[in-house]
Amino acid sequence: AGGFAYLAECSKNTPSFANLAAYCEKLREMYLGRRMTLALQVGIQKLSEPTTEGIADIIGNIQADISGIEHSADYGTEHITTGIDMSLETIQAIINGDIWKYKTELGMSTIDSAFGGFNNTDFIVVGGRPGMGKTMFSTTVTETVGLKNKKPVLFFSLEMPVEQISERVAFHRARVSKEDLLSKQSGVMDGAWGKVGHCMKDFIEAPIYINDKPSLSVHQVRAEARRMSKKLG
């Protein structure tokens, strides 16, 4: 009874080792879906109940949880030959003088020469006492990465307003100072304003963004960075 069509349907619906990979993938998707549902339910509960946490922190936590689920969906497993090929490509780029295709130039020749640039996945911490040049270092990197290399830059400033950060980057690019712009010597002042005006066209399409909101939490910084990353690709 049922004929060939029935037998074909039975074969299709009967678990077998031939379909093991598909079953495992389906199981993984269901697991990730349940984790996502749970994360959203917890977030909704926190938003609906009185809490000492701010809304921004709660949203940041939800986004962090979802991001963790998204990353867990990517196994990130590669054969060793893939890594070797990537390494050899980088070495070949160094030989050909095309190193900045694979690494990030910071704009300071001494550091770039010493380290050969930095990998795009590096996490760099710069420390120092007030007045040691941390902001100058950061604005120089911003100028080099955003203007010269045309790579997106998101600058978080918890102390200086966006006006001061932008001023430092722009004036450094134009190689002028605020004193030059305010100079009573017409030649100096006119020349400085001309340089600033000339370099402004470089900033119009530069992928440089500054966030000067004070007292940002780590979750808020991460959430904004993730939002801008999706926006800029």
UniProtKB/TrEMBL annotation:
One GO location term (cellular component): primosome complex
Domain SF4 helicase: from-to ranges: 97-233
Domain of life of the source: Bacteria
Gene3D superfamilies membership: DNAb Helicase, Chain A (1.10.860.10), P-loop containing nucleotide triphosphate hydrolases (3.40.50.300)
Keyword Hydrolase among record annotations: yes
Matching Pfam families: DnaB_C
GO biological process terms, semicolon-separated: DNA replication, synthesis of primer
Keyword Ligase tagged: no
Keywords: ATP-binding, Helicase, Hydrolase, Nucleotide-binding, Primosome
One Gene Ontology molecular-function label: DNA helicase activity
InterPro entries: DNA_helicase_DnaB-like_C (IPR007694), DNA_helicase_N/primase_C (IPR016136), P-loop_NTPase (IPR027417)
PANTHER family: REPLICATIVE DNA HELICASE, REPLICATIVE DNA HELICASE DNAB
Protein name: DnaB-like helicase C-terminal domain-containing protein
Source species of the chain: Enterobacter hormaechei subsp. steigerwaltii
